[in-house]
């Protein structure tokens, strides 16, 4: 069950509560008394505890849909979300351009925007500056920030990293930073090996950053949407404790409850994700000890389903055979979540012949590109094997 499906199904069980909320929002809007999301303090700034990650924007004809993105950003700003996160790579460079368009109407001082340099394509120092200037222009904040830069007044410098705790430690030691952006979620929280479920070892990374005095921005809190699309058994455990909140809400609260986290980024694609997140972070309450146990149990149940820990980030694109790797993993994971054999077979067969998991030649080109350190060729074999077994069953 994905986040949209959960939110829709929740309508039936919690229709009263949902309508009340909707009514409340509409009424509040009429009176201009919109409740704002909770904030956390970073230095002397008040940052919204939930930030809008701009890497999974709604799309139209393969490009970010500016109209829908504008509506989501307007809703976010209206409800006090003031932290937004983009990068050179997101949507093949179009995320930054969309930022330039949708934030035009807002005073620059009314929001915080994090952007990232594309380290993988950067050459020397001159190239870094050239790309940086281009990013500022694309985001339409060139005038303001270039002036700040000339004055030496860029105040807070942070970095984003998807790697091992060892490399994190190295980067922290080498430069002077103000904050760090880390992938943290309950699936990746513990364990030290670099395969399967626990490649990132988020707990250790969080502790390293905390020890170094670096406040943390959390990315990937829902593991690319996996924590929104738990299997039925896991969802049931959460619903039993609280039928009115989505699985995403549980997992976002988990990371936002960590003391050294000042903002949690959520990559939102639909308006209902935005509405759900705003609801979670309005009058934010950390998870209680009991709730933490319930969530941990649900995640353990989900892990035992054998889903692949792909975050669908697309960093692995460029398979010479033309295999859409995240799509293959998504088809597999949906089967692990809903156990619907016919649906899995139909989805697998809807992929163009020659570009299916069974066509992987194990060249390994994709493997080093994966920030989750997934053994993609082996996992392709697993997807193909599952298809073969189900088809012949
Ligand atoms: S290992 Fe398989 S999936 Fe990865 S790039 Fe090679 S053929 Fe494509
Ligand atoms: S296989 Fe790895 S790189 Fe590819 S989409 Fe999944 S997590 Fe991202």
Explain this structure to me?
The chain has 393 residues and is of the alpha/beta class. The protein has two domains: 262 residues, NADP-dependent oxidoreductase domain (TIM Barrel, Alpha-Beta Barrel); 68 residues, no CATH class. 46% of the residues lie in helices and 10% in strands. It has a seven-stranded parallel sheet, with helices on one face. A two-stranded antiparallel sheet has the order 1-2. α3 runs parallel beside α11, α9 runs antiparallel to α12 and α13 runs antiparallel to α14. The protein is globular, with a radius of gyration of 21 Å. The two termini are 25 Å apart. The relative contact order is 0.11. The protein binds iron/sulfur cluster (SF4) (2 copies). One iron/sulfur cluster (SF4) binds next to α13. One iron/sulfur cluster (SF4) binds next to α15.
Please render the helix and strand layout as text.
Elements: H1 3-13, H2 15-31, E1 39-42, E2 45-48, E3 50-53, E4 59-60, E5 63-64, H3 66-78, E6 83-85, H4 94-102, E7 112-114, H5 125-138, H6 142-150, E8 158-160, H7 165-174, E9 179-183, H8 202-211, E10 216-219, H9 232-241, H10 247-256, E11 261-267, H11 271-281, H12 289-303, H13 325-338, H14 341-350, H15 376-392
Parallel strand pairs: 3-6, 3-11, 6-7, 8-9, 9-10, 10-11
Antiparallel strand pairs: 1-2, 4-5
Helix pairs in contact: 3-11, 5-6, 7-8, 9-12, 10-11, 13-14, 13-15
One iron/sulfur cluster is lined by residues 310-316, 325-326, 329, 369-370, 372, 374, 376.
